[in-house]
Design brief:
The protein is an alpha+beta fold. It has one domain (13-91, 140-310, 354-458): Outer membrane efflux proteins (OEP), CATH 1.20.1600. It is 59% helix and 13% strand. The chain contains 9 helices and 6 strands. A hairpin with a 2-residue loop joins strand 2 and strand 3. Helix 5 (143-209) packs antiparallel against helix 6 (215-250), helix 5 (143-209) packs antiparallel against helix 7 and helix 7 runs antiparallel to helix 8 (352-418). The protein starts with a helix and ends in an 8-residue tail after the last helix.
């Protein structure tokens, strides 16, 4: 009984090294981080309040081809795990054969009686076999279980890769949507500016015809007008290209019944969030979990490599019937039962097993380095987004004040120009500065929202819908 218990304990053991998670190669806290709410706990519908953006994200998650490939990779990895798991179970197969020998006798040495000598043993020329064949590798040293664990961790790593693709897709849709909205709003500003420059040109031409303005003023007004018209065409092109990129991410043409977009200045478009303080929140990111499961798979492979040094024990058995006539296969006396055990012990492999074990250890060190690099990259992404969030708020407030000041300046310079007090260069300078300030403000708003979306993704948010 004790021997049976000992064997059972051995069968339940593997040679996989004990896993210890590598320490985080980053600071314990993010610089400038505040709040305690983990972004991963917020669904993307709560984070992104724009109904149009929500609809686009839902369409992308349903139709994006890259995400579909990632999901299929999970299924393929799961099938590989099932294949490896099945090797732990006995195999049972049916066997049926009919054989015909060239000769009907076999000369054999027979021992018996008072001596030995050659004897002729008759062998049937034709015989039939029908039965069941069973085999099982007795995984005493855990080689198969180590390979099963490796396959399981690879499967889990692929699952996390799918989650990472999911998060990345949500982030890409948000970013591209903001790019498209930025070009759309810049185009609207350019339309108003084109109208203003056209009016200024018409006024200058009228004054020029009356002899009150020089041709220099007229050509400057015309150049300004044509410059804005060119910018309109550029922004129109960029907006259509941004829409095409959005269509690629969504995986289908944009439906005509989408909700109307919200302005970039609307605070509810993307909610602000308070990131979790400790850097431990990075361990929830799918790409970090993917790297850790890859490390666990490499760790399990060491157990399989170690087991190669020990014997492989295989059990085989056969139960069936054998007869010289097919119709007598199931007659009395034709039963056949065979059982065998095979033990294979590596003796000389030319150093292959040692090299295989060394390679397994090296692969684990590679996975550790990759795991640490993923964490360092994640930490930098979060730290950059936190710093950018603080500066964007101050920069945005300053830019809003600048736009207001430029609007007043342009109105004053234009009135002075109409009254003949100021030259056109004052109007031209004020108009250029106002247009540039308005475009910069739109871009800043888009960049600020993009940064919030990047922070949300960097903290592991975007996997859950609600």
């Amino acid at each position: 009984m004790r021997k049976l218990l000992l064997v059972a304990q051995l069968v339940g053991c593997t040679m996989i090294p004990r896993y210890e998670r590598p320490p985080l190669p980053v600071s314990d806290r993010f610089p400038g981080g505040g709040g305690t709410l983990a972004a991963a706990d917020q669904g993307w519908r709560k984070m992104f309040g724009d109904p149009r953006l929500q609809a686009l994200i839902a369409l992308a998650l349903a139709n994006n081809r890259d995400l579909r490939v990632a999901a299929l990779n999970v299924e393929a990895s799961r099938a590989q795990y099932r294949i490896q798991r099945a090797k732990l179970m006995p195999t049972l197969s049916g066997l049926g054969s009919g054989s015909r020998l060239a000769g009907g006798a076999l000369t054999s040495g027979v021992l018996g009686g008072g001596g030995g000598g050659a004897a002729v043993v008759p062998i049937p020329e034709t015989f039939y076999v029908l039965g069941l064949n069973a085999s099982w590798e007795f995984d005493l040293f855990g080689r198969l279980r180590s390979l099963k664990r490796q396959a399981l961790e690879s499967y889990l790593s692929t699952m996390e890769a799918h989650r990472a693709a999911h998060l990345s897709l949500v982030g890409q849709v948000v970013t591209q949507y903001l790019v498209e909205r930025s070009y759309a709003e810049q185009y609207d500003i350019a339309v108003l500016t084109e109208k203003s420059t056209r009016e200024t040109y018409d006024l200058t031409k009228e004054l020029y015809d009356e002899g009150q303005r020089s041709e220099l003023d007229l050509r400057a007004a015309e150049a300004q007008w044509q410059n804005v018209r060119g910018a309109l065409e550029q922004l129109s092109r960029l907006r259509v290209q941004a829409q095409n990129a959005l269509v690629l991410l969504v995986g289908q043409p944009l439906p005509p019944n989408l909700p109307p977009p919200q302005p970039l200045a609307t605070a509810q478009m993307i909610c602000d969030l308070a990131p979790g303080i400790p850097s431990q929140v990075l361990l929830r990111r799918p790409d970090v979990l993917e790297a850790e499961h890859a490390l666990l798979a490499a760790n399990a492979n060491i157990g399989a490599a170690r087991a190669q040094f020990f014997p492989k024990i295989s059990l085989t058995g056969f139960a069936g019937t054998l007869s010289i006539a097919f119709k007598k296969l199931f007659s009395d006396g034709t039963g056949l039962l065979a059982f065998s055990t095979m033990i294979g012990q590596p003796i000389f492999t030319g150093g292959a097993n040692i090299a295989n074990l060394d390679n397994a250890h090296v692969q684990k060190q590679i996975k550790i380095a990759q795991y640490e690099k993923v964490i360092q990259t994640a930490f930098r992404e979060v730290a950059d987004a936190l710093v950018a969030r603080e500066t964007y708020e101050r920069q945005l407030a300053s830019q809003i004040a600048q736009v207001k000041a430029q609007e007043v300046r342009f109105d004053l310079s234009r009135e002075r120009y109409k009254e003949g007090v100021a030259g056109y260069l004052d109007v031209l300078s004020a108009q250029n500065d106002l247009y540039a300030a308005q475009q910069t403000l739109i871009q800043l708003r888009a960049d600020r929202l993009t940064n919030l979306a990047d922070l949300y993704r960097a903290l592991g948010g975007g996997w859950r819908e609600n």
